[in-house]
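Box 3.1 A note on notation
Throughout this textbook, protein chains are presented in two layers. The first layer is the amino acid sequence; the second is a token string describing backbone geometry. Keep the layers aligned when reading.
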Amino acid sequence: MTISRKIFLLTFLLLVCTIIKAADVADVNGKKYSSFSSAVTDWLKYNPFTDNKAKTLKLLADVTTDETISLGVFLIPARTIDLNGYSITVTGSGHGFIVKNNPATLNLVDSRPGEGTHYYYIGADNLAHVCDASNANYIAAAADKKGSFTGGYITGTNFTSAGDDDGMITVGWGTLR
């Protein structure tokens, strides 16, 4: 095999590996992650000797998780989730987010509140269900039982603030259901 053929094959393999790499779904203070779970783990880490600035978890795509994200007393300074026009869908029966004990603070923001159009319909259970515009239930719903909104959102979760001195959840530029 000639050297030029070997170079071509190596270049081709590198290109294939680059294409196959999973897309990034989140960013924590500039570090990108292809796994939401890994991003959350880094976002929640706290070292009182070296971690003296706030951490922001910024979505780069819609994500679905069955994890409970729990912020406790040792999370100083505050943690922020920037929906960035995307969504977090929490599955399962547990709480999606728990903020316990002061001074734990979770800030929810959406740095692109006018981005992305999302659709919803009010189901027989009287709950809003987020879907795409081609969803059969959305199409069949009466005009006063469906609608759309823009920006990021979190759905399928319960927010809990627990403890003697409850933590704090601050919402700015986003949809909290």
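The helical segments are 3-20, 36-44, 136-140. The first helix runs from residue 3 to 20.
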